[in-house]
Write a structure and sequence with these properties.
The protein is 29% helix and 19% strand. By secondary structure, the chain is of the alpha/beta class.
Length: 444
């Protein structure tokens, strides 16, 4: 069974919410819609206080080439355009909407009828995706239309659909495949048409045999699409690791997947593409996993953006008394939240509620030079060295040692027997080096 060649670890899976049917979270009394739910420039509001809006209406326009439109996930009146506090205590610009009913734009097709035929040209498909505000729903939230527009001289050869979901605990993509396999496959054909290619691979890890079987059965009616079962190994869902596993090509340091002819899209993004192109439905909601060993009713929930995460957590039985930490995302790449009042948005795929006993880090000890962090790094880096350089503020040396290639997967932190906070130092250094590189490029 295929997998990537360099590094990787095997954390406990803990797929507690696997095969739990998607539940719809009720609408909130007030929706708080962040203007930066994507990589790149924040969206610019196109509505004012007091405006009446409907579900699916554009309320903020992309603020640049790398940006994404934002649409109202609810109907009601704009209460204000102000700042809100995100999960990490930072202020963010947002549009506050008082919810009044659930009135949708008439051009949005809300029926369950499966639309298999796409008559749009590749250019029209990309425009519809951009108009719908679709971004990568695997975590990076990179605007999808940018990925579908390769730079001059670069040609896509294969679409790789990331249905791996290797992050422990999370099951939202798995359940999405079980409930919407046909829509996902149609979404794949639409993306193939947009990219003008004849080949697509859907990569799924072997711990989802039901999804593999269903997707294989569904793609059997489509030319050029195959399902690739993959060996269990984290971080299989990393873009470069998935490309290596599926087509045996390694993306060079500092390069993008298009350099080896690949375009990668998350399976939830593919489903959103189907809805946008075939149903005129912008990206206004997503499936989120709420889970944890002490959670009463772990599950997968369809959430309109702007809904407080507290409302979603309540659907899973609320926050247990023995909670020590709440993570946005999974345990390997997620980040601890300072509050759960923040609204659901395009970035959040899961909420992990951890017990006190499992959320406290052991005291770090001296490095014993075992090189385990080097052996598990999927990017072939030297985490112990990068962490040491960050601690000494040696940014130039960090850049020379390819810190920008780090995908922040946490394998080094997971495997370190001395409990060194390697990822914390590397992430800090990567942010600093990234800023230096951007400043340098602006001077050119």
């Amino acid at each position: 069974m295929k997998t990537f060649r360099i590094g990787g670890v095997h954390p406990e899976e803990n797929k507690l919410s696997a095969r739990r049917k998607i539940q719809v979270v009720p609408l909130p009394k007030q929706a708080i819609i962040p203007l930066s739910q994507h990589l790149g420039a924040p969206a610019v509001p196109v509505v004012e206080k007091g405006a009446e809006v409907k579900v699916g209406q554009l309320i903020a326009q992309a603020g640049g080439f790398v940006s994404a439109n934002v649409h109202s996930p609810v109907s009601g009146k704009v209460a204000k355009i102000d700042t809100a506090i995100d999960a990490w205590g930072m202020k963010m610009p947002a549009i506050f909407i008082d919810v009044e009913g659930d009135e949708w734009l008439p051009e949005i097709d809300r029926s369950e009828k499966l639309l298999t035929s796409c008559t749009y040209t590749p250019e029209e498909i990309v425009k519809k995706i951009a108009d719908a505000g679709i971004v990568g729903l695997g975590g990076a939230c990179f605007p999808t239309q940018v990925k579908l527009t390769p730079p001059p001289g670069k040609v896509a050869e294969v679409l790789i659909v990331n249905a791996v979901e290797c992050e422990p605990y999370l099951t939202c993509d798995h359940q999405l495949m079980l409930e919407h396999a046909e829509e996902i496959v149609i979404g794949v054909t639409i993306l193939m048409k947009a990219l003008k290619i004849q080949r697509a691979i859907i990569g799924i890890e072997s711990n989802k045999p039901d999804a593999i079987e269903l997707m294989q059965k569904t793609v059997s009616r489509q030319m050029g699409i195959e399902v690739q079962p993959l060996k269990l190994k984290y971080p299989q869902g990393g873009e470069k690791q998935l490309i290596d596993a599926c087509i045996g090509r390694q993306v060079p340091s500092g390069a993008l997947p298009i350099e080896v002819g690949a375009v990668v899209q998350n399976v939830a993004t593919v489903y959103a593409v189907y809805q946008a192109v075939q149903k005129n439905r912008p990206l206004i909601d997503r499936v989120i996993t709420v889970t944890g060993k002490s959670v009463n009713k772990p599950g997968n929930f369809l959430v309109r953006f702007g809904t407080p995460l507290n409302d979603v957590i309540a659907m899973a039985g609320g926050i247990p008394e023995n909670t020590g930490k709440i993570i946005a995302g999974g345990p390997m790449m997620g980040r601890a939240m300072s509050n759960t009042d923040m609204p659901a948005n395009k970035r959040i795929s899961g909420v992990l509620i951890m017990q006190e006993s499992e959320s406290t880090r052991p005291e770090p000890q001296n490095c014993i030079r075992c090189a385990k962090c080097v052996s598990v790094c999927p990017m072939g880096l030297e985490p112990y060295l990068l962490a040491r350089l960050a601690g000494k503020s040696m940014w130039d040396e960090m850049e020379k040692h390819n810190v920008m290639d780090c995908i922040e997967c946490g394998c080094c932190l997971f495997t370190c027997p001395s409990n060194r906070p390697l990822l914390d130092y590397i992430r800090m250094g990567k942010n600093k080096v990234g800023g230096i590189i951007r400043a340098r490029n602006m001077k050119k």
